[in-house]
Amino acid sequence: MPENSTENSAVAKFALIIVCLGSIIGPLGMASVNIAIPNLAADLQANAKMVSWLPTLFILSSVIFMLPAGKLADNYGRKRIYSYGLALNAFSSFMCGLGTSIEWVLFWRFVQGAAASMIFGTGVAIITSVTPSNKRGAALGITAACIYVGLTIAPAVGGWLTELWGWRSVFFFQVPIVIALLLLIKMRLTGEWKNDEKTKYDWWGTGIFALFSSTLVYGLSILPDNLGWVMLGLSAISLALFILHQSRSHRPLIRVQMFRESRVFSMSLTTSLLMYASNFPLVFLMSLYLQYVKGLSPSHAGQVLLVQALSMAIMAPLSGKLADRFQPRLVATLGCVIVACGLLVLSLMNTATSVTYIASSLLLIGIGFGLFSTPNNNAIMGGVKPQEVGVASASMNLSRTIGNLLGMSLVNLMVHYYLGNAQFTPEQNPALIKTVEMALNMSLAFVVLACAISVMRGKSRAA
């Protein structure tokens, strides 16, 4: 028995290492591409409209395939789907690097988003499957910290690679790293984790959800055109159809009854969506503000923005340990409150605000978000039955992705309203500041609502 316990502990530790490496590679490959976009656009002669779909198609694909990936992982093995996701990510990255047209790169960027859904939709499920509940918070905290590390170093790595070897190297550099990781999984990570009984795959549900996601993204991208409102209406109808279909299906992608059975699960997902909707646009907004209004160089602006990412990476493991000792909702709610305070302080800035003031506000937001993310994830995974952790993991990542998409789409609407098609010139600074103020107020409103929901979610099984 002790030998078996030691063996299980070794598997759990190695699984954590594997998932952590994937958690660094995934966001590193995704975010570093943003730095290479100007060079890519110039080389492929792509216009701004086409280039803007590079991140959008990635997110859209991730949203569409997140739930199917979780369901397939529950049926056929979480390690297997995770490995397939890594392999597909390497292949699609390689194909992007070979691109001779923007259409080619966009297609494989969409495929890369599907690969990302397989990686992030199953990674947390693997950790949950092999880690004891009293240590799960710490393990999830380390995983979250690795994601933040990937996002933190991505701009520097992307800029360095692009400057030395061109934009194609940003895609190519991932391939040997992923191949090495796959070999490690093959040789060292023993065992597999899946449900005892397979359930048939719900293709109708997948199609309806894809329709919902696609019309949502496209509709938000073309507002306030009438077609945009039509697309959003179609998106709402398809979402209602998806929920109805899933509630009646004998083989649903996600049991909608889970949301009624577990208040902790449903309210923790809602809190996650709101928090990520509030946080995701910050880097975009502050990058514009620091460079256009404050006149900072890109490298200096990146150093200021680094404060938030670093504080999130440092706090995530600590918050995981706190979630193992106290109720996750208490730690997560404290994080929400700190984020709200940081956003409130940041919303008071103007053209004369010092960089130190801005960095201090971002530090506060980073600390709060680091305290929030891991305990909230712990509450989500602890709020479902053990055989549904794959779907719960996918749902958690889905709420984050949709939150990112929602927040950025609303900010795009504000940019269109206040700035329109104008170029970023000093004459447009008042309009830019107004856009930032409105967006920060929107983020603050989301966080205040998240605080209220977080308090009401109830106790988690994880504690």
TrEMBL record:
Compartments (UniProt record): Membrane
Keyword Translocase appears in the UniProt entry: no
Domain called Major facilitator superfamily (MFS) profile: residue spans: 15-462
Bilayer topology annotation: Multi-pass membrane protein
Segments passing through the bilayer: 12-30, 50-69, 81-100, 106-127, 139-161, 167-189, 201-221, 227-244, 264-289, 301-318, 330-349, 355-372, 402-419, 439-456
Keywords: Membrane, Transmembrane, Transmembrane helix, Transport
InterPro entries given in the database record: MFS (IPR011701), MFS_dom (IPR020846), MFS_trans_sf (IPR036259), Sugar_transporter_CS (IPR005829)
GO cellular component term, pick one: membrane
PROSITE patterns found in the cross-reference section: MFS, SUGAR_TRANSPORT_1
GO molecular function, one term: transmembrane transporter activity
Domain of life: Bacteria
Protein name per UniProt: Major facilitator superfamily transporter
